[in-house]
Fold:
Amino acid sequence: MAKNKEEFVNQIASRTENFPQWYTDVILKTDMVDYSDVRGCMVIKPYGYGVWELIQKELDSRFKATGHKNAYFPLFIPESLLKKEAEHVEGFAPEVAWVTHGGNEELTERLCVRPTSETIICSMYSKWVHSYRDLPVLINQWANVVRWEKTTRPFLRTMEFLWQEGHTAHATAEEAQEETMKMLGVYKEFAENVLAIPVVTGRKSEKEKFAGAHATYTMEALMQDGKALQMGTSHNLGDHFAKAYDIKYLSKEGKLEYCYTTSWGTTTRMIGAVIMVHGDDRGLVLPPKVAPIQVRIIPVAMHKEGVLDKAYELKNQLEEAGLRVDIDASEQSAGWKFNECEMKGIPVRLEVGPKDIENNQVVLVRRDGHEKVFASMDGLADTIKNMLEEYHKHLLNKALEMREAHTTDALTMEELAEGVNHGFVRAMWCGERECEDAIKEETGGATTRCMPFEQKELSHVCVHCGKPAKQMMYFGKAY
Amino acid sequence: MAKNKEEFVNQIASRTENFPQWYTDVILKTDMVDYSDVRGCMVIKPYGYGVWELIQKELDSRFKATGHKNAYFPLFIPESLLKKEAEHVEGFAPEVAWVTHGGNEELTERLCVRPTSETIICSMYSKWVHSYRDLPVLINQWANVVRWEKTTRPFLRTMEFLWQEGHTAHATAEEAQEETMKMLGVYKEFAENVLAIPVVTGRKSEKEKFAGAHATYTMEALMQDGKALQMGTSHNLGDHFAKAYDIKYLSKEGKLEYCYTTSWGTTTRMIGAVIMVHGDDRGLVLPPKVAPIQVRIIPVAMHKEGVLDKAYELKNQLEEAGLRVDIDASEQSAGWKFNECEMKGIPVRLEVGPKDIENNQVVLVRRDGHEKVFASMDGLADTIKNMLEEYHKHLLNKALEMREAHTTDALTMEELAEGVNHGFVRAMWCGERECEDAIKEETGGATTRCMPFEQKELSHVCVHCGKPAKQMMYFGKAY
Structure:
């Protein structure tokens, strides 16, 4: 068993020594993902896609509970349509894929593969919205999008990725702002209660906001290597797109008014966040709510009479109670099975052998090794559900502690430059683009992550220029 | 009310007078779909997408119950990869969209937007499969695909459509055949038990089979205008793709062997089938299992005290019992509401007013008008569930009767040519491509739909050439 364990651990690099290699090892060895024959495009394997399906289910139910419905818009956007909102096209045109031929013919107008769908969706809303009675329009789309990236990494940045994009239209600027904040709130609650990832929420700088937005709000998380990851964004698009795509409505007072629109999105990148926030040197650590397998049953002495039967009986029983369960009945050694179960990040391992059956009990081991308990077979589903709930809280707290330990306040550029090598840095900022650019330059790449809603006045002056500060900003080196 | 009713009915063409116009009217007026700014691409609006979500849920649970897992493969396929299977590329190359530029650069190799994913998936299976222990591989993908079609019609034939494509790899030809038949069986059960559409299952001719397949099996349905619609196909790909993409495994006996693969798919086209099989002159008719709204509550005299409260109370009660329910509390007249409810194909209308509340009852009206009953508020959810079950059976039987009334046996070319103008025609066929082509030519477009598993010997000779017949074939004019 010792040898087996070593073999397993040796398959993945150490997190502390080489985090990028650790990440690559983990996602490949656990069959989350694979590289494909297409540059920059990943294959999401069943185990990784299982996580995505659970994410989708959780988010989708939240979208529906807040009054949104799903729809589907075309993959292709004619070049002329893309170009109607000036800032938007400037932001996206350099990174889109162009379809120029259909069948054997050259197209008269080339089509871009959607990098995001504001343009095509707004052009439809312009047809659908006539009166205040048609508002608000609350639609979400689950789709694939393509952005022509130079360097890619599975889940974190790929040419094609899967996401959801909400697009709404409202009668007033206030309602659009309310929607923008509401959906950011949904994202934050989801990140914490489902992914067990604590997030900082706030507003993006003008430089970092979405191309064409009035204001972008974001949730930002800290990875174990001290890097920041943007986990989801919610954009108040003001009337920019309504004006560019002519979305107008007749108000109660009989006046023709422009709408105010929003958009908000989260992507398969969140799977990368789960891996980088929770994983350890033994592999993946999956929060229970997005673990495709929550409990793996490992029969001990499985060739003894009654053991496998009991294992399958327990599996059925737990599945009926709503748990996701499998059995490892392979011919591998127990040690190998334990290690593989850990590597895959399965929250709870359940061991059952002849002795346990005699005593009407099983052994439960949490992925973090914190708990190893003998549990009665009576009320087992409830015992495990409680264990998973505790485990979720534990993961969230651990991630929060990690983030706090890696978040510092900087009053000087030295402190800022040092801090961003290890985590988030809070610092005062004058709000000027020049300082934002200079800070990035002088720190080897730190960017403004967000102006948090929870402000503190660390000092009165900008950390860079010494002029009066406008707000506290989170800085970080980002994925 | 009479005037309202007329207004509504006048919005859609008569099925019997102009079926294509009726179809277009229905899908647009019921907000199922809309045309987009992109030629040949549709927008699936929330009401239409709601049907697709229910189809997905029902199919997905069946795929999982038969051991399949979902995964996701890239949208783009490099031209060289597409070209490895000769028949396949010949079949698909004329109808693919080509990406030639990424960002501002021309690609060194152009990428096709997947028309189907055998090529990219097989190239991955070649990496994943090494030993008999890795088999079978049972994977499904929910995705969008693109085929450059000349003429399009929403749901039935569009440049981009949504579908699922299952791709499996097996150790032996027998297992691949078994899988192919199993999934066709899943499709047939789904069509009948969920969509309430009876289907004929059987094998496609060599001419009509999937490009690169060993054999294609299909389910075919008859629309109310007498045209045939291919509802789903299941392909036994033999070892064709395994050889082209090098999917090999080491057998138990230590021999390197090629795999046998299958693929099977159904698409958003099924929504078109639902519309064309069940709809009537008053609009959509949705089978209960794919109706986004199963029950619409229409409060009568809704401004009287207690009526709206009771309506919402009933809604909550029915939703808790698992029914999909909404309320029309708009200011429209009752007649307008009744007609809109019919137009949208909602299976059951529930009326509740002051009198009903006094008597602890509601009025239930089935979409086909067959039943209009006073039902007690006690046990209402069960009453409605039974009603929906009966309604499903009724729709299936009605569709079956319609199909049987439009299916004829032909012993002569005259009978065949006449029959295919109104429905399916069964006729004996020699199995030769020449006769198949000639029949199409001489009947103004009838194609072989399938060789049904249930064969009858109508005569000994081919309906066209008079030479010995090999089997009975279904002919039809197809969408």
Summary: Residues 68 and 471 of chain B are 34 Å apart (CA to CA). The mean pLDDT of chain B is 95. The two ends of chain B are 38 Å apart (CA to CA).
